[in-house]
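Please, structure for the following, as tokens.
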Amino acid sequence: MSIIIFIIILGVLVFVHELGHFAMAKLFGIRVDEFGMGFPPRAARLFKNGETEYTLNWIPFGGFVKIHGEDSLHIDDPDYHRSLVSKPWWKQIIVLIAGVTMNVILAWFLFSISFMIGAPTTASSVNNSGDLKNAQLTVVQIEQKSPADVAGLKAGDRITGVSRPDAILANPTADGFVSFIQSTKPGDTDQIQITRSGKIETISVTPNATTVPGTQAIGAGIDLVGTYRTGFFKSIGDGIKTTYYTAGQTLHSFGQLISGKSSIKTLTGPVGLVGVTRDAQRIGFVSVLMLAAVISINLAIINLVPFPALDGGRILFAIIEAIIRRPLPKKFVEWTNTIGFFLLIALMIIVTVKDVIHLF
């Protein structure tokens, strides 16, 4: 079910992204030859409407809009006037940036809907924890291969108590729970009482001092989680704020990666995102909506990177051509985008292999 949900999420995000390119290209009178879901090879031609073919392709993690002249085109082409490169540079950039814009708008919409329905929200992300309804101490993250992971704790578990032979802590606060774990003697086991899917369970966890060097820890992120619900107009404002905050955090993470302060090991690919989807699914439907919003923002920011084959790379080429007042060499543009595409595929394979290895 997590795989199915993730594929649906990815399909919607990619469709909305490519719809932005498609709509603006049509608006400016640019010929669109194909609207494809997934990457080639082609699995099926769904239908054709006017000059545009709508296709389904075998590699499910992506999609594309084939715009006439997007990689450069000779001026002698009979339909040159309807190509992307024939349009003013600012129109080219609008077409290229439309996909990113649609992803940001979608994220804002999903966050706003989540707040209207009632979004599971951590106390650390709101100004006043009193705004949360039915707040409970909840596991929000599990570090792979940590004591919590080995013991079977899962994201979404509600913690109702923790005990060992010499101490008991009922209805702990986040700080109280952390202090209790840190006070565990090396080698001792804590009994954590949780509620999962309406059932009460007890999980035995043995903290260690290697997960967090120098202190007893179990490798679980916890926070007070409750339902944050607002009215229509406030939810729109909260949606804007959350979109802005999430985009800022994502940009910061990419900056850390590019500067070398963060490792490629922190990247998560499709396989890893299935696991994240599973955790969100356990918490509830609204968590899945919010996860989709976060992925949508990540998709937008990744596409803005000025790297060949990405929207950001094509925008960079358009700006360069506007400055030098002539098109870049056709072969240069084609080969640069082709090499960039295969490098991106190689990166996706590396990250996917890493995610698969972490499963075992």
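The chain has nine helices and eleven strands. The first helix runs from residue 2 to 27.
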